[in-house]
Amino acid sequence: MAPTDTDLTAEAERRSGWRTIRKVAPYLWPPGETWVKRRVILAMVMLVLAKLIAVYTPILYKGAVDALAGEGVPPLALGAVGLTVAYGVSRMMNTGFQQLRDAMFAPVGQRALRALALETFRHIHRLSMRYHITRRTGGLSRIIERGVKGVDFLLRFLLFSIGPLILELLLVGVVLVALFDIRYLLVVAVTIAIYIWFTFAVTEWRVKLRREMNEQDTEANQRAIDSLLNYETVKYFNAEEREAQRYDVSMRAYAGAALKTAYSLAFLNFGQSLLITCGLIGVMVLAALGVQDGTLTVGDFVMVNAYMIQITVPLNFLGTVYREIRQSLVDMGEMFVLLEQPAEVEDKPGAKPLKVTGGEITLKDVHFGYDPEREILHGVSLTVPAGQTVAIVGATGSGKSTIGRLLFRFYDVTKGALKIDGQDIRDVTQESLHANIGVVPQDTVLFNDTIRYNIAYGQENATEEQIEAAARAAQIHEFIITLPEGYDTKVGERGLKLSGGEKQRVGIARTLLKNPPILLLDEATSALDTDTEGEIQGALARAGEGRTVITIAHRLSTVAEADRIVVLEKGEIVEQGTHADLLARAGRYAQLWSRQQSDDAA
Fold first, then answer.
1. What is the largest distance, in Å, between two alpha-carbon atoms of the chain?
2. What is the pLDDT of residues 3-51, one digit of tens each?
3. How confident is the model over 571-591, as pLDDT tens digits?
4. Cα–Cα distance between 52 and 46 in angstroms, integer?
5. Mean pLDDT of all residues in the chain?
6. How far is CA 549 from CA 59, 99, 437, 438, 516, in A?
């Protein structure tokens, strides 16, 4: 009989689960980390000792009961009182070894969590721009959050619930055969086998329901984040109720999935209780018959009951633990899939740091398209001499900003080459490339921290004097000192507490503090009003002194003073020259200039 799609999916998930466990294992036994290995070994020793004591404890209980009833031979040659005390000490030792085990393993688990979370965080930053613009930030953060929590749960429950439970069941089985007979073991084994089959079968069904609930949870979370990030847009269009309704649709779907999960849990709990109770009754009936015919003592009856209760307690949690482990494996699997996502742009083996001697930028027959079927740049060749300012202008969609992204190596050219001082940027390290290029984008996005922090982001460990000097050069120092908290003023999420011009100045100060030899201005003033634009232009002009500058602009008035202006049309250079030269030619640039002048006059 051919396997169904469901069977294939289940098999794939099982393989994925084992693969995930194999990926986590090295974090618990890292090479060279002797202290980690030592703690793992000690934790396992504590675990075994706790279980050995747990299995021996009911024997002390039986001895105390028999001593009080005047039956049998008490263990350890102690009386009823002594056995009762020994029973209490045994229970305390069991608990003590369990707590020592947890305390011994806690640093190992936290180290594993930290290492995994840090590796994932770093990897996300290594992924390409193409990946990030196609993924939702809220969804990514949720994957990391659930994945790290999944690792935490897996470490605690797989090692300290499932493993100890299996050990305890084996030890109890040995005791039942040694002190009673095979019938007791058979009843317990059959009960546990049916219990585990029922638990796993129902839990597999519940995992699918849980996955659906997770998907709805992610969707609701993403809608909430999108709405809050676009708070101003929601207000502009009076769309609060519309957003609330969209969110409620997601929450209604989540609530439906959550209810299915809750109902299935009730069914699972009842079935587990029924099976365990039947097994308990079976074993107790055998023990009661033994007491009646004189082959067992009352203490034996009590001991069998103690063993059944002892294994029942962890078994009752098996469904929950198994479900959570399965869900943790799914969550961790998503995180490891993220970790396996290849970075589109990577350093070549043996890549050397970029050496900027002057800052000359050369584009040689550059072809590129975000989609292989739709090329954006068609053989662009351009040289930006060291220390000069070259402006790239053109209509929307002509490929201006694409050149900036290629220069910063968010993407690699599909054909041709892009060089800095004769070095192909694909042959140098990305870290050195990024260190030598400063970018002032159209919309400066700030961290939800102080103005000082946002300016200092341009240079790690910058001094107060350096921060203030950069702020003065960007013409924002005087504004900052008028604020009640000065440089310690919080800018709000994405810098919403500052105006567009203030944010741009902070962005310019940040880039000036970085002090790069190459500056990329990507429509840095297009979102500003005319007065603010004029002030920012002055700051940008000073920022460009002594540097190679590429200015990408839509508004032509901002680039009239450039050393050279390049006109881009549908991914090709159609004109280039100074502002005066291009106007004299009466070509495409002159048309754009005339149109913008007319629009400004209107």
1. 120
2. 443 443 444 455 556 666 677 777 777 777 888 888 888 988 998 999 9
3. 899 999 999 999 999 888 898
4. 10
5. 83
6. 84, 63, 10, 9, 10
Give all strands of the β-sheet with 377-384 in edge-to-edge order: 377-384, 361-368, 415-420, 423-424
Predicted confidence (pLDDT) at residue 323 exceeds the cutoff of 70? no
Pair type for strands 518-522 and 437-440: parallel
pTM of the model: 0.64
- Cβ atoms of residues 522 and 404 within 8 Å: yes
Q: Which residue has the tokens 């984008």?
A: 441
Pairing of strands 389-394, 415-420: unpaired
Token pair belonging to 368:
């590129």
Distance CA 165, CA 196 (A): 12
Tell me if 520 sits within 8 A of 408, measured CB to CB: yes
Q: How far apart are CA 589 and CA 577, in angstroms?
A: 10
User: Which amino acid makes up residue 276?
Assistant: I
C-alpha span between 490 and 500 (Å, rounded): 16
- Each residue of 409-428: b (16+ CB within 10 Å) or e? bbbebeebebbbbebebbeb
Structural element, H or E, at residue 600: helix 588-601
Per-residue pLDDT at 464: 92
Radius of gyration, CA atoms only, the chain = 35
Cβ atoms of 321 and 161 within 8 Å: the answer is yes
Highest averaged pLDDT of the listed ranges 94-98, 268-272, 474-478: 94-98
Q: What is the pLDDT of residue 138?
A: 55
Handedness of CA 469, 471, 475, 480 (dihedral sign): negative
Q: How far is CA 2 from CA 6, 8, 16, in A?
A: 12, 10, 22
Beta pairing class for 361-368 and 437-440:
unpaired
The mean pLDDT value for 99-128 works out to 81
